[in-house]
Design goal:
Layout: H1 13-24, E1 34-39, E2 42-48, E3 57-62, E4 65-72, E5 92-99, E6 110-114, E7 117-123
Antiparallel strand pairs: 1-2, 2-7, 3-4, 4-5, 6-7
Length: about 140
């Protein structure tokens, strides 16, 4: 009896993504996960960046755009004299751009890095705060 194999084009998809990511030098889907929320008069952004250090991260705010970039490099000085049989840990980088829901006071922004999580505290500007309008009766 002959074996009949059904061709499934979707089975090739993971290897296509891997090949494309090798060409581009990054892994698809490797962007750090993030949370953005507000509490009182502050916008918070949390970003999971395990394996990065404070020195490898850059944060910039321009208008209502927040950009966070990171670059982690392999320690080449430790690699001398090694003969690798497999090497999957290498340089990696990311760039995440967020549109903030409000204008913030970038000069008062704070960043904390703890246990692989970057937490940004971004106070809202006066323009973004709710205004109370007094009604004059005649």
């Amino acid at each position: 009896m002959a074996n009949i194999r059904v061709f499934n084009p979707w089975s090739m998809l993971p290897s296509v993504w891997e090949d494309a990511s090798d060409l581009m030098g990054t892994t698809f889907g490797s962007l750090p996960r993030a949370n953005m929320y507000e509490k009182d008069d502050v916008v918070y952004v949390e970003l999971e960046v395990p394996g990065y250090t404070v020195e490898n991260l850059d944060i910039s705010i321009t208008g209502d755009t927040l950009k966070i970039t990171g670059k982690s490099t392999e320690k080449t000085e430790d690699a001398k004299g090694r003969r690798y049989y497999m090497s999957e840990i290498s340089e990696r980088s990311f760039a995440r751009t967020f549109t903030l829901p409000y204008e913030v006071l970038s000069e008062e922004a704070k960043a904390e890095f703890k246990n692989g999580v970057l937490i940004l505290t971004l106070p809202k500007s006066e323009k973004a705060l709710p205004k109370t309008i007094k009604i004059n009766a005649r």
